[in-house]
Amino acid sequence: MTFVLGKLIQISFGIAQANPAFEPATEYTIWFGIVIGLIIIYEAILRMIITRRDFQKLQRRQKLEELDSLIYKIDEYVKRGEWSQAQQLYSDIEVFGIDQMELIFRCLELAEKHERIGDLEASQFWYEKVG
């Protein structure tokens, strides 16, 4: 494989003849093929790493979107005063495996929002979730 790759490169640069049967493999051809092969392997590994990182970012983004949706549903129950439903849905948040600080910030945002509009019971619910 490396010989063929090196030979193709030599032919394209005009270093060797078009018929590989006339010229034996030189050390230069073999090393050139090995270097090109290593570059191809290195590029494939980098693409795998980048793809994996992008996939992890996508998964995290999807988890955060699901968390936002669930928090919105919980907030709707809190606004209506259905505390048991809100508490039950809040216990489902742990399934997402979201960073605790992320959850605390979102709960604080909701608590402050309810405090600004004067809904102290809802604000108290979210402050209790923060701890």
Annotation keywords:
single chain; 131 residues; mainly alpha; 5 helices; 0% strand; rod-shaped
Structure description:
It contains 5 helices and no strands. By secondary structure, it is an all-alpha fold. It has one domain. Helix 1 (2-13) crosses helix 2 (27-80).
Termini, distance in Å? 63 Å
Mean pLDDT: 79
- What is the rounded Rg? 30 Å
- Outline the biggest β-sheet: none
Q: What fraction of residues sit in β-strands?
A: under 5%
Which consecutive residue ranges, at least 5 long each, have pLDDT under 50? none
Kindly state the percentage of residues in helix.
over 70%
- How many individual helices? 5
> How many strands in all?
0
- Order of helical and strand elements: HHHHH
Overall shape? rod-shaped
Structural class: mainly alpha
Number of domains: 1
Please give a quick description of this structure.
The protein has 131 residues and is an all-alpha fold.
Write the layout of secondary structure elements.
Layout lengths: L1 H12 L13 H54 L2 H9 L8 H18 L2 H11 L1
Helix pairs in contact: 1-2, 2-3, 4-5
